Amino acid sequence: MSSNKKTSGGGSIAQNRKARHEFFIEDTFEAGLVLQGWEVKALRAGRLSLIDAYVLLKDGEAFLLGTNITPLLSTSTHYVPEATRTRKMLLNKRELDRLIGAVQQKGYTCIPLSFYWHNGKVKCEIALAKGKQLHDKRDADKDRDWQREKGRLMRDRG
């Protein structure tokens, strides 16, 4: 038996790139997911889309909605996979209470930021976020452009 146990994937599966543009990220959490076998195989192949995905907090539980995991062609012929089904998220009670309190009382939104492998298991990084106004997005774009230009100027001078 070999002592070199290889972890599956070894990193990021998918990122929600629009999330940091559309929202102010306040706090992040790591959540596990209840997945079916075909979904894990599809995630290994990188067949995940986080566009329009969000986390619903209901009855003291968290559910991931709007996530599209496209099934592989080799999925069993006698089973019809549902690509956008609601998936349960696994968080401890303290984290759930904190998320529910922030969403209900303070007006935060709970969104998924990324999916990744951790010790052979699929994890989802979720965030408490507040929506940005149009002028906030413009300010962020302007600041990012200035930082890029400043880096170019410093590199050219040095």
**Percent helix among the residues?**
25-40%
By CATH, the topology is Small Protein B, Chain: A
Number of strands: 9
Low-confidence stretches: 1-9
Task: Give the distance, in angstroms, between the N- and C-terminal Cα atoms.
Answer: 54 Å
Average of pLDDT = 83
Number of domains: 1
Q: Please state how the strands of the largest beta sheet are arranged side by side.
A: 1-8-9-2-7-5-4
Outline? globular
β-sheet strand percentage = 25-35%
The largest sheet is: 7 strands, antiparallel
Helix count equals 4
Class by alpha and beta content = alpha+beta
CATH class: Mainly Beta
Region (Disordered): 138-158
Subcellular location: Cytoplasm
Family: Belongs to the SmpB family.
Protein name: SsrA-binding protein
Question: What does this molecule look like?
Answer:
With 158 residues, this protein is an alpha+beta fold. It has a single domain (12-132), classed as Small protein B (Small Protein B, Chain: A). 31% of the residues lie in helices and 34% in strands. The protein contains four helices and nine strands; from the N terminus they run E-H-E-H-E-E-E-E-E-H-E-E-H. The strands form two sheets. It has a seven-stranded antiparallel β-sheet. It is globular, with a radius of gyration of 19 Å. 20% of the residues are buried. Mean pLDDT is 83; it is low at 1-9.
